[in-house]
Amino acid sequence: xxxxxxxxxxxxxxxxxxxxxxxxxxxxxxxxxxxxxxxxxxxxxxxxxxxxxxxxxxxxxxxxxxxxxxxxxxxxxxxxxxxxxxxxxxxxxxxxxxxxxxxxxxxxxxxxx
Length: 113
Ligand SMILES: [Zn+2]
Description:
This protein is mainly alpha-helical. The chain has one domain. It has helices spanning about 5-30, 60-65, 70-80, 100-110, and strands spanning about 40, 45-50, 50-55, 85, 95. The strands form 2 sheets. It has a 3-stranded antiparallel β-sheet. Helix 2 (about 60-65) runs antiparallel to helix 3 (about 70-80). The longest helix is centred in the first third of the chain and has 26 residues, at about 5-30. It is elongated, with a radius of gyration of 19 Å. The termini are far apart. The mean pLDDT is about 80. The protein binds zinc ion. Zinc ion (ZN) binds near residues 90 and 92.
């Protein structure tokens, strides 16, 4: 297998990794039944598009990918698994879709207060 070297594999995996991210995120969005992206924060009542926060650094990821293939892959998967939506106003996790029953109740609560 001289024609298909490890460098080719690294480049291929990196391309697949980059392309797969928006798909995985779109899939997560679809699973939570939140197609329009409108969320409400249970702690401060802010409604709107959540901020997506990813732990770790893209630079560490790139360096790991360039130097060591396996840790790079593990690091990428860890970052994907820790990625989550947080409130744009207070940074709280656990946002609820506004159009869900709980979200509607929360929206009413915060409107009343
Ligand atoms: Zn908030």
